[in-house]
Design brief:
By secondary structure, this protein is mainly β. It has a domain at 73-222: Immunoglobulin-like. The chain is 10% helix and 42% strand. The strands form three sheets. Strands 3, 4, 8, 9, 10 and 13 form a six-stranded antiparallel beta sheet that branches. The protein has a four-stranded antiparallel beta sheet with strand order 5-2-1-12, with no helix packed on it. The relative contact order is 0.17. The model is unreliable at 11-17 (pLDDT under 50).
Length: 228
């Protein structure tokens, strides 16, 4: 009996399989090229990505119920000179108004009144008694304006303060600023000869002696006017 013969077939090739599509390398190359193009476009888009616009902050709307911030006006007073006659005491002044705010002030009226400090009484002077009414049209932001003038006081209106046998006179210059859409600003200055203490103090005027020009005088701000 003859043994059966076993025949080994050659390996099966995919390209030879019935109905299998042929594998072509050109499609792989085309796919790789397409993928490379997409990656390049993505990188270019990231580089050219528009910046995010930052919008300006919305303006602050003022509260209609809030109280308005009024400008601050500082006052400084200089005394160029003074004289005393048989009937009148005359004082020359130079007043500087400094606007300490960030906006201008307009249409101000400065009232100046010369008075005498009285012992045991309020030395405030009513606005209607002002001797000088000086208009100031405008003071710009952080600017100043200087005005000057002259005020007089009859000697009969002076109530001297006795120091022993010497009658002393303490002049007061009251300044009020109104207008500009703000509340009135009031300031008083005591006038006298410079004190020896170097602390801005002033000495009363002695009413004895011949009439004529008085020695150097200085002004010291006070608030409120003193009671002597």
């Amino acid at each position: 009996m003859t043994a059966p013969t076993i025949t080994i077939a050659p390996p099966f090739a995919p390209s030879d399989a019935p109905g299998a599509p042929a594998f072509e390398w050109r499609w792989l190359a085309a796919g790789a090229a397409l993928l490379a193009s997409l990656l390049g476009a993505l990188l270019l888009w990231r580089r050219r990505k528009p910046k995010v616009l930052r919008l300006a902050a919305a303006p602050t709307i003022p509260d209609p119920d809030a109280e308005p911030v009024l400008p601050r006006i500082d006052l400084a007073l200089e005394i160029p000179g003074a004289t005393r006659s048989l009937r009148m005491f005359t004082l020359r002044y130079r007043l500087t108004l400094a606007n300490r705010s960030d906006r201008a002030v307009n249409d101000l009226v400065v009232a100046v009144q010369l008075a005498c400090a009285k012992r045991g009484a309020s030395n405030a002077v009513p606005l209607t008694a002002a001797q000088n009414m000086l208009p100031v049209e405008r003071i710009g932001p952080h600017q100043s304006r200087t005005i000057s003038g002259e005020v007089v006081l009859p000697l009969t209106a002076i109530t001297p303060v006795m120091h022993g046998q010497a009658p002393l006179f303490i002049p007061l210059l009251n300044v009020t600023i109104e207008g500009g859409g703000q509340q009135a600003v009031a300031k008083s200055f005591v006038i006298g000869t410079p004190g020896s203490g170097g602390e801005g103090r002033v000495q009363p005027l002695v009413m004895t002696g011949p009439p004529g020009a008085l020695p150097e005088l200085t002004a010291r701000p006070i608030d409120p006017p003193p009671t002597v």
